[in-house]
């Protein structure tokens, strides 16, 4: 035991001698280095904690716009940068679709002017997405200078933001605190933040896309419910334009329908200044329109104002200059729909809320076609119901009313020889009235078979004869017999109307008549138009251009015009034309 104690004292005495031999200066240096390492560790821990806080902060919610604002703010705070910007790269991969800034007030932004579009130094990370640090950004070869009212900037740090191996945007930081340069540690911190931001942005975009799809299904249900009720086509088109604009987060929604060689604006939803273009015609043969109409998917245009300018159409619609990214989709032709176009456009500086690769606008276009076909089917069903009701009324009139009137007329004629002469005259007039009533009922039956909303030759003749009541000084008597609207071909109708007009004009100019009768009789083989007046009569030796015109019209129909005197005075003009040859 005593020997062990002596050995231990010897060890400590030896260590004490060695320690005493160390230089006090060397010891101070070691202690200083130790403290420095501790400070570095603490600083690293603080920065790591700040990075974690920033990552947690940028993922606070899934709204894409607010997420991008939080990312650029967190990056500035993380490396003590005064100014920051996050540029979202557009679909053309050449310029920014929008920019989120930090450190600049709204007043300064307004004074500076439009945001940069991704050229110069800012476009360097678009072309080469690798981190870059600069002592003075103005000395870089790609620097293009600052616009007026832009705050001075010197130190620079740029880092790309990737989502799923694709560059989503670039993060720019300038003016580190105390005028210092950004360090390699700053670059690593911002790069790490950018990596986390890419995940958050991707989640936010997926969430936004899911929300838009959910909203689209809600809108689809809304439109479907509308189509299950009685609705007007214009109401459906306006609803589709409004919902397409809302779901795509755009400024304007427009529905075009094809009409001949043009597209006609049928519905607009958006700012009031665009409402003036409702009903405006757009040529359907424009190259852009043709390509969209032939495409099987929706077409995205990055700058519609630029396209309109290149097509020399900007002067026609100056309001289009306020719009930029636009999505166009063709309305497919339906059973009763000639096709068309659906367009939604975003304001400059905004981004449409439709993910690339989805065809939401195209789906809305299909809904528009379905709505128009459904509306036409409803109208056809309503017309069919009216026609069926008219057929029933026509059968009742023919089978019941006319037969009873005819029987009554026969009974009166049977009594004619059994009564006094004065009574015979009254019976004769009654029989004539019954015959006139039967003719009127038959004319009404033929009119009942005319489709609602369609042009009627019978009504056109009535309107034409009524026009001459004033120049003649009396209303001509009109009699229409037979199925005018169902038998006479469409090619013959204008000629019949023209013949009646020519004949009545001749009566007004030359006949000096006090009575005029217009008869139109249709049989299975021909149509006959007869105009009779009690005027001064016709001088058959005199050539008149009106009669020549009538003859030419009759010959064009394969018929002829016959003129004869009306006894005791007046003229009869008769035009006959076969029906079968005109079908």
Automatic annotation (TrEMBL):
Query: What are the UniProt keywords, alphabetically?
Result: Kinase, Transferase, Two-component regulatory system
Annotated transmembrane regions: none
Xref: CDD domains: HATPase_UhpB-NarQ-NarX-like (cd16917)
User: Which species does the entry assign this protein to?
Assistant: Kribbella antiqua
Q: Where does the Histidine kinase/HSP90-like ATPase domain start and stop, copy by copy?
A: 491-581
Q: What GO molecular function annotation could you give as one example from this UniProt entry? A: protein dimerization activity
Name listed for the protein in its UniProt record? Histidine kinase
Instruction: Please list the residue ranges annotated as the GAF domain.
Output: 63-211, 232-382
Give the PANTHER family listed for this entry.
Answer: NITRATE/NITRITE SENSOR PROTEIN NARX-RELATED, OXYGEN SENSOR HISTIDINE KINASE RESPONSE REGULATOR DOST
InterPro entries the record matches: GAF, GAF-like_dom_sf, HATPase_C_sf, HATPase_dom, Sensor_HK_TwoCompSys, Sig_transdc_His_kin_sub3_dim/P
A Pfam family for this UniProt protein? Answer: GAF_2
Q: Which GO terms describe its cellular component?
A: membrane
